[in-house]
Amino acid sequence: MDSCHFLKGSCSVVPSTVMFPLRVPIFAVLVSLTVGQYDDYDYQPASQYGPSSANCAQECECPINFPTAMYCDSRNLKFVPIVPSGIKYLYLQNNLIEEIKAGVFDNVTAELRWLVLDHNQITNEKVAKGTIDKLTGLHKILFSFNKLTEAVIPPSKSLDELKMMNNQLSKFPAGSLAGMQNLTSVHLQNNELTSKALNGVFKGLNKLVAIDLTNNKLKKLPSGMPSSLETFYGDHNDISSIAAGDLKELPKLAYLRLAYNQMTDAGIPAGVLNVTSLIELDLSYNKLQSIPEINEQLEHLYLQVNQINKFNLENICKFSGPLNYSRLKTLRLDGNNLTHADLPHDSSNCLRQASDIIFD
């Protein structure tokens, strides 16, 4: 690829903090998607903690040094064992569990903090009434890689992290997240959710900073997203447009990813992306024919593999001068109908901070 450069001036069982960034490099946002499963749970195998305590299900281990944790992972279990009182952190990942029977959580309805059910075979029909819907103290529910078609939400006002990736979700019960004022991150990627199914679901969640809806069936951004939101991932959907008011309601949005969608110039009203809070904007692998209007504060813009045939410098810098210039550090334009020769001769002042401008 051809690149031009402008230089400036010439297990612990203790719950982890939220993995999405508050204005930090974007790779930190991806940690929860790329690290190993044990790191994702701040997990250490029970064998590292010595013998099991007496207050434990016989199928599992409850280390004496960490008596509030019960490790039932990777044991070919086909059911959730009855959880004894005193357990706060329950690990059930990597089993063959198909159902959750009534009564298994009756001893810990208010005290269970973490419930990890990833990589099982659970369907909605086999989640008995009076199980998860009684867990009023949960902080984290990790229910990814199962066979759910509708989100299963505990009634806990303390919930801070919800992960239901890689299911078959097409339904999200209206009002199921209402009042969850501690919820900070929601991971729903790799499901079958539509914009309609999610409209209003996140409304009023004033601590929610990160939503990942990668690889679903969205045609537009869900309505009612909270003003606290800082990160939205909507890659690999069918989004064709952004409504004029969508981003005005998100004054803290810093990271917006909409790669691999159906975005066209007509679907981006004038000024809709001219948002001072944005740090990173990814519109790669869409159908754009021009560089959209952005704010001068944007630092990373990804437009590779579109149909852009003109370098619209005025959409990056309306005015160029000693104090008026773009803060772009990265601009990717490879996979378009542009070459280095299309870069305007007067772009060096506007793009004085850019270290990577990439063409084919």
UniProtKB/TrEMBL annotation:
Gene3D superfamilies linked to this entry: Ribonuclease Inhibitor
Family designation: Belongs to the small leucine-rich proteoglycan (SLRP) family. SLRP class II subfamily.
Assigned GO CC terms: extracellular space
Identification of the protein by name: Lumican
UniProt key word NADP: no
Subcellular localization: Secreted, Extracellular space, Extracellular matrix
Keyword check for Signal: yes
Organism: Salmo salar
SUPFAM superfamilies reported in the protein's UniProt record: L domain-like
Domain of life, per lineage: Eukaryota
